Amino acid sequence: MADRSRLVISILVGIVLLMGLFMLYLFVLQPAMQGYVIEKQTEGVQIAVGTILTQIQQYGFVQIPIGENQVLTLVPAQAPQQVQPQA
């Protein structure tokens, strides 16, 4: 009978430990990893936009391949000048 009680207690302690590890992962490790991923994605977007802007400033345009035999060309836009009526 004592062996059976000891086995049941061991199993319950194991279940509690597994639940504790799961909670640790859920509330500590997963948000930390998610934050790291978002930080690196943001950094990548900033680098890409910075590179595009640099190329536009240097060459006046940038070409981005978007598919097979297709290229997206970006050029700086100039706002249309409004003509002021003469009084």
Report on this structure.
The protein is built from 1 helix and 2 strands; from the N terminus they run αββ. The chain has one helix spanning 2-59, and strands at 62-67, 70-74. The model has no long low-confidence stretch (mean pLDDT 91). A two-stranded antiparallel sheet has the order 1-2. Helix content is 67%, strand content 13%.
Key attributes of the depicted protein:
two-stranded antiparallel ribbon, 13% strand, rod-shaped
Using only C-alpha atoms, the radius of gyration works out to 30 Å
Work out the strand percent: 5-15%
Write down how many β-strands occur, each being a DSSP E stretch of 2 or more residues. 2
Q: Which of globular, elongated, flat, extended, rod-shaped describes the shape?
A: rod-shaped
On the 0 to 100 scale, the average pLDDT is: 91
Unreliable stretches: none
- The domain tally reads 1
Distance between the termini: 107 Å
Main beta sheet strand tally, sense and closure = 2 strands, antiparallel
Class from secondary-structure proportions: alpha+beta
Q: In sequence order, what are the helices and strands, one letter per element? A: HEE
How many DSSP helices? 1
Residue share in helix? 55-70%
Name the strands of the widest sheet in spatial order: 1-2
